[in-house]
Amino acid sequence: MTPVVSFPGDPPAERRLPWLVFLLLTVAFFIxxxxxxxxxxxxxxxxxxxxxxxxxxxxxxxxxxxxFLMVGGIGALIFLGSNRRPLEMHGFLSFxxxxxxxxxxxxxxWADQPALTGRRLIVIATLATGALAVVTRMSLRELVLFxxxxxxxxxxxxxxxxxxxxxxxxxxxxxxFAGTIHPNNQGVNCSLILLSGVTALLTEKRWRxxxxxxxxxxxxxxxxxxxxxxxxxxxxxxxxFAIIVFGNSRHFxxxxxxxxxxxxxxxxxxxxxxxxxxxxxxxxxxxxQDISGAMTLTGxxxxxxxxxxxxxxxxxxxxxxxxxxxxxxxQEISARQGWPIAECHSVFLExxxxxxIVGVSAYALIQFLGLARTVSYYRVTRxxxxxxxxxxxxxxxxxxxxxxxxxxxxxQTFVQFVTLAQLAFQAPAEAIQRHLxxxxxxxFSAPAVHRLHLLPKPASPGEPS
Length: 465
Hints:
Blueprint: H1 19-33, H2 38-41, H3 50-59, H4 62-80, H5 91-106, H6 114-137, H7 140-165, H8 183-203, H9 208-224, H10 228-246, H11 250-269, H12 271-283, H13 291-295, H14 300-311, H15 327-337, H16 347-381, H17 384-400, H18 411-425, H19 430-443, H20 446-451
Helix pairs in contact: 1-4, 1-7, 3-15, 4-6, 5-16, 5-18, 6-18, 7-8, 8-9, 8-10, 8-17, 10-17, 14-16, 16-17, 16-18, 17-18
């Protein structure tokens, strides 16, 4: 079994899991994001009406506000309690996150709709508070299990809701599994189960059959969502996770070589049949569009071209966080694109519109610095849970290319916040700290200075100085 690393201030591994915190956060996000009637009330194209989008833009969504305020309240209660680790600034990543949050807050001063930006800021503040509190209360092991059990609860609730409503019909041509949320979000939820389940399978001593069987179940329902973005994000995240964790294994190397050989053989001998298979794979069995529609990313490419025209008008600071999609912009862009739109369907374009080049540069750098830190931590500790944190960030990076995960925050947004908070505001494991201290000593030692030719080389014994 892969060795497990202990953390400074972590509770003993045999301590009971903080089930109450798990439950409260799960309920809060269920209130904010889930609707048991979703699969019954959703339209054939799985899009909300333009009237609904305009209402949420002008008035907000009371149910979401209550749920996110609960997350912030739970975070505040954790901070008021005991048995938690202190927060500390750790490296350039923490300063960059503080700068980004300050830039978001300052954007209310130049926002087109300050009230709209203010509402968005409250949501981000509650999520950030909850994330910071969670990393002071939970160990890395508990974070993995929290993601697993919370996401599993949402999947089971979705299955139960569709069965009760009679909407669970996977044999229908246009069916996509939604459960209690949009199929794309359900795909992300299944991806979270898969990543956390595999990680738990590698690191936990008990319930391993549970983690394995639930992961297989989540894979089936990920495919049933027919969400290309979610599936692609998971494949990339899990692929990198596997390379990081199993890359030094000869069996893994042999399996990769065998798989590549098989793919090349099929490509050589059955190229015609393969082209049809690729087209079917891209569509994932969906009949609401043809291959040309899929290649435009379900209308996203024309939308992005349109939105870039708006971004060019305010390139430095943007329109204010969450302030771009006013009722007027929703009507204007929806009419031009021919479908109801109230988000960018890309987190990077969303940040560019709201916070300009300054904001999107900081956001991208935060993501990639966090990802690099997870890889370096894994190399020191060989703990798969650091690779899991990297997988969570990759899910957000790849999925964020086609989804607005900040403007329309989800459970994925929260676990990204938790991951970055863990990396930036918590002391690293003892083994990592020793490695960092050793690296610092080597960096500033005299031999290192000599190699850089900043000091003259000392004379050998017997030579004149």
